[in-house]
Amino acid sequence: MKTGLLPVIVATATLVIGCGREAPPALAPVMAAKVADVAEVNTPGGFLDSIALARDVGYVATGERGGRIRVWAPADREPITFGGYHQAVVDLAFSPSGDLLASLGRHGEGALRLWQPAERAGAKVWAEVASVPMGRCLALRFDGSGTRLAVMCEREVLLLDVATRLETARVPNPHPENMTAFDLAANGTRLLTAGHEGEVAFWDAVTLAPIRRISVSRSRRPGPRPPPGVPPPEVWAVVVALSPDGSRAAAVTIEGTVYVWDVATGAELIVDAHAEASGPPAGSLRFAGDGRLLAPTGDRRGMRLFDVSRKSSRIVASGGKAYHAVAITDDATGFAAITSDLAGGNLSYGVEIWRLPGKPSG
User: Fold this and answer.
1) Contact, 69 vs 63, CB < 8 A?
2) What is the pLDDT of residues 238-278, one digit of tens each?
3) Backbone angles phi, psi at 226, to 5 degrees
4) C-alpha 330: how far from chain center
5) Which end of the chain has the smaller Cβ count within 10 Å, N or C?
6) Could you give all domains of the chain from N- to C-terminal order, each with its CATH number?
7) How far apart (Å, rounded) are the C-alpha atoms in residues 307 and 17?
8) DSSP string spanning 211-263?
9) Which of 344, 341, 295 is nearest to 322 (CA)?
10) Phi/psi of residue 234, each to 5°?
11) What is the chain's percent helix, strand, coil content, to nearest 5?
12) Nearest partner of 222 among 140, 336, 317, 298, judged by Cα
């Protein structure tokens, strides 16, 4: 593995939200700094599927299809490698404190595992402290306190108490098809799910009562409509996010269209659709505490920051390689992205790590 610490500053650009609308007043520049560029993060022949980033950017974890997990600090020369169960690591998540890592393995039936840093014979390790059998599950999310962990499976969402590892609630799938994405608000009050049929559903995460459902199944991509007799494209949400207080929700569809809603009223606050946009990388959507939204660029080669109140966005990171998966810190002040390279006919993966400043004035 090769690590380089790169203080790269990325230029910004203002994007217009929607088609044919006037651009809002210019904002003060928002810049992201690339703090590390890590090459060859996978084991030989390994395929990377998942990534997690601790809130302080002190740890990065990657999960491989063969079951290996690797964790390192950005300045470390070598990662700590562990796991090795014959289950693809489909998702990883650090607790808000950064001292607990959750992994979700899948091979037929799967397992949720919890890991903590430890020292054995003078060497740093990540020790397995719990294993919970799971069904066909896909994604993980800690709440803001780190006391609850939500697990999205194909047909339900499970809420677990982290201390006891016991299930505290089970939310049945409200969608006629399998779920594609979910999020749990940091304050634990709201839950958001998305289904392959093209709907998103808002829930009260305490009472488990449904709040509302909204469809994103209609294509909002600008351009000509399909000719007569040709069915419209299937559209669904690939990634979703809730603001920390659960008052706003966002989604990005398979066409790259970004939506933001007011959860209480269902009002559509932003629709950002572009003719050339593609589906987003996994994990590439997160609200910051101040209400801004970190989302992928339409070409999957960078990230942009939405100011929801001004209905504007700026590109804050951009590069030459497409992002396969993204991990964003809980406060949306940093993110890590998996990239790949096929140099010499050998597939290798890299990780870019970026930091964002606080909310700009202006």
Assistant:
1) yes
2) 999 999 999 999 999 999 999 999 999 999 999 999 999 99
3) -60, 145
4) 10
5) C
6) 2-222+233-355 (2.130.10.10)
7) 10
8) EEEEE--S----SPPPPTTSPPPP--EEEEEE-TTSSEEEEEETT--EEEEET
9) 341
10) -80, 130
11) 0, 50, 50
12) 298
Query: With contact defined as beta carbons under 8 Å apart, do 256 and 278 qualify?
Result: yes
Place of tokens 């069915």: 231
pLDDT given at position 16: 36
Strands 48-53 and 325-328: unpaired
Say how far apart CA 189 and CA 206 lie, in whole Å: 6
Q: How many CB atoms lie within 10 A of CB 171?
A: 20
Residue bearing tokens 């294509």:
219
In sequence order, what are the residues at sequence separation of 6 or more whose Cβ sits closer than 8 angstroms to the Cβ of residue 256?
273, 274, 277, 278, 279, 280, 296, 298
Contact 52, 101 (CB under 8 A): yes
The C-alpha atoms of residue 347 and residue 341 are separated, in whole angstroms, by 6
Alpha-carbon span 203 to 221, nearest angstrom: 28
Helix (H/G/I), strand (E/B), else coil: 54 = coil
CA-nearest of 133, 174, 5, 164 to 77 is 5
Task: Please give the structure tokens belonging to residue 178.
Answer: 């399998």
Taking a C-beta distance cutoff of 8 angstroms, is the pair 77, 356 a contact? no
DSSP structural state of residue 282: B
pTM of the shown model: 0.88
CB atoms near residue 183 (< 10 Å): 26
Q: What is the dihedral of CA 220, 314, 285, 129, to 10 degrees?
A: 170
| Tokens, residue 208 | 């488990």
Mean pLDDT score of the chain:
87
> What is the chain's length?
362
117 touches 134 (CB < 8 A): no
